[in-house]
Design goal:
By secondary structure, the chain is of the alpha+beta class. It has one helix and five strands; from the N terminus they run αβββββ.
């Protein structure tokens, strides 16, 4: 019984930690989509690289701040609307 309780607590804490990580990463991506660096707050963020996975796959996108050097990768799912693939 003790092992079950400890395992359940560890699993719940792991799920909570993952949820908070995804939420934080999403907040960073929202700022980046507005052109604002999440680290320094300047409008100096730019797309560095984009590796696509087609319309139904995800694209690996790297953004870099020209001011502070912040760099981060994001996996963004693509969409096919009216025959054209976009992020």
């Amino acid at each position: 019984m003790y092992m079950f309780v400890v395992s359940a607590i560890i699993i719940l804490l792991s799920v909570l930690a993952y949820y908070l990580y995804i939420r934080h990463k999403g907040a960073k991506l929202q700022k980046i989509e507005q052109g604002i660096c999440p680290e320094c707050g300047q409008k100096t963020i730019a797309l560095k690289t984009k590796k696509g996975g087609g319309c139904s796959g995800t694209s690996n996108v790297t953004y870099r701040c020209e001011n502070c050097g912040y760099e981060e990768d994001f996996n963004i799912s693509g969409s096919c609307g009216s025959g054209s693939c976009t992020l």
